[in-house]
Amino acid sequence: MYISMIPFRLFRIKEASTNATITEDLEKLFNDWYEDFDETDRTSTSSDRASTSNTSTSAELPENSSSATPSEPSHTEPIPDVPTLIATLSPTEPSDPNSSIDLISVPSAIPSELSETAHEVIHEDLNQSQSLQEITSNINLPHAVKWTKDHPQTQIIGDLTEGVKTRANFLFACFVSKIDPKKVTEALTDPFWVEAMQDELLQFERNNVWYLSLLPNGKVVIGTKWVFRNKMDKNGVVIRNNARLVAQGYWQEEGIDYEETFAPVARLEAIRIFLAYAAHKGFKVYQMDVKLAFLNGKLKEEVYVKQHMGLRYPNHVYFLDKALYGHKQAPRAWYERLSTFLLSHNFHRGMTDITLFYKKLNDDIMLVQVYVDDIISGSTDTSMCKEFESLMQSEFEMSMMGELTFFLGLQVKQSAEGIFINQAKYVQDLLKKYNLSEVSPMRTPMATGLKPHKDLSGASVECKLYRGMIGSLLYLTTSRSDIMFATCLCSRFQSNPKESNLSVVKRILRYLNKTPTLGLWYPLFSGFDLLAYTDSDYGGCQVDRKSTSGSCQFLEGKLVSWSSKKQNCVSTSTAEVEYVAAANCCSQALWMQTQLRDYGYTFNKIPILDDSKSAIAISTNPVQHYKTKHIDIRYHFLKHHVEEGNAEMYFVNTEYQLADLFTKALNEKRFNFLVEKLGMSYP
Q: Which residue windows does the record flag with biased composition (Low complexity) (predicted)?
């Protein structure tokens, strides 16, 4: 219709006594406008169609042939009359005759004499103290929402820092199911879950997992069960439906169905060292997920399982050639298969961390870190990354490959300036789980001078709730060193928690509500020197008067390891406490020293900074006297490594003792200072 082609503007009509006057003016205005518009449009349309017809005819007919011009088609859509049009454009409720402001929509092509006397463009004469939203709030206009662009932040759902979500963010929503079935019968009613189950059985067929056979005499058959889980991304959007046919491993008997079950798993410190090295060298880290990894591990034992639903053969069972999810030896079988494959292609296994594989070519190195079926890799030469990708695809079926963004609950952001690690999504889920998203935030995780103790007269709380909170917070310390001391201190009261202990844990969660996106920052092309800090709190535990040891290790400003632990012995002096804490710190530093040898770095005389001159003197004094002979022999290995030249003790002023954060509760100023010095920041 012609009305869809009319541009509209917003005008204000002053001193309008009645709506009749407005209607008369608009009738005249629209009549004049439609006459000009209709005449111009018909003329231009006729000429355009005539030229188009002549062009097409001349192209199709010979030069001497005659052609007839087709007749002008008439308009099929009727033009609405002016009163009807005005009624559709006028407000639903009549304006107040005594009011000096009335809003309607009129065409932009209006006579100049009318605009000078009766109409003014609203944006030229609006009062600065009255916004457009306030003017239109009491007027029922169907398109008034189009004039509003700035919405209050309280009405915006979600995280403001994540930006606007478009349809591309929800691409997977059209191809997956959002339900989480508990039974097989429920999953069979959903076509997406049926497809996921078919994909699972297809993988069994491709990998030759089992063979149908009769059950030998004296053999025990193991049951199977379908498990359904929705896999989500860091934003909580379902991206894949995982259907797993797992073995009921609790039916297995040791010595008959399995022998060894141990499977190595990468330490979280090793993951952070990997990312710190990537930031040091300035290369990208990639991740890959082996599809149904456990189905690739060969079994050494003779194992039989029952048939699953849908395949029923009388007196038959499945003989397993490869492991299923749920078998006790499945992780070990998968690791042996993967390590054998990598070692056969010129990779070397780490000396200390056997989940690290590396390949060196001239001055370049290719690194592969394995955490069960999740693999991260990176290289100083991009061609080696492509070669490794092709190598894995030739042997295993991969389900996800690309730059590292989400790994073991860690959100990893790789940019041109460095690598940022945090657990913002986990923090939000944790606060939502315990209904603490709307509580007032706290500036520090623990009050200054607070030392929790056993409250014998206090009311008890549910152990499951308290232990669940502690377990979640301990996992959060993977990237949040600022809550390490407070969480470890609260974990000492899990046997019989009281309300006073629960209030301390809730304060930690309220602090997380204030700093959900805080994380570790590894700048690109920074140094890689190993440095350690150690500190202690003498007699900090109010229950048994044992002290607390705290330490942290850096790779040239990149925090990769930290700890806060109550000592096992009761010390009689502050020198002994500091000496024991320094011994624990030295142990961790020596592990990192051997770990970094696989990266091509050899560190001698690792500097350990301590604020106790007495502990430094004990570590360098070759004589044992009555003040030190009672110290446990196992802590004297610090002196041994200092004498061997593997470590060296240095004094640091208490003001710059970064390990102080892991031994006691601090005030806000001191706490924020140490958090910044540890290399923690916001994205």
A: 43-59
Q: Are 329 and 357 in contact (CB under 8 A)?
A: no
**Long-range pairs for 87-92 at CB < 8 Å and ≥24 separation?**
90/19, 91/139, 91/140, 91/141, 92/140
pLDDT at 362: 87
pLDDT at 599 over 70: yes
Angle separating helix axes 637-644 and 574-597, nearest 10 degrees: 50
CA dist., res. 246 & res. 258, Å (int): 16
399: Cβ contacts below 8 Å, ≥ 6 apart:
240, 289, 290, 291
Average pLDDT over residues 358-378: 91
Task: Please report which helix (H) or strand (E) contains residue 553, including its range.
Answer: strand 548-555
Q: What is the pTM of this model?
A: 0.70
CA torsion 521-527-529-532 (nearest 10°) is -30
Return the structure tokens found at 421.
């690690």
Distance of alpha carbon 364 from its chain centroid, rounded? Answer: 31
d(CA 257, CA 241): 31
322: closest CA among 302, 300, 297, 301?
297
Give me the residue label for tokens 């042939």.
65
The pLDDT value recorded for residue 625 is: 61
**277, 366 Cβ separation under 8 angstroms:** no
The 10s digit of each residue's pLDDT in 24-34 is 554 554 455 44
Separation of alpha carbons 120 and 117, rounded Å: 8
Residue 26's nearest CA partner among 99, 72, 86 is: 86
Confidence tier at 47 by pLDDT (50, 70, 90): very low
Residue 249, phi then psi, degrees to nearest 5: -65, -20
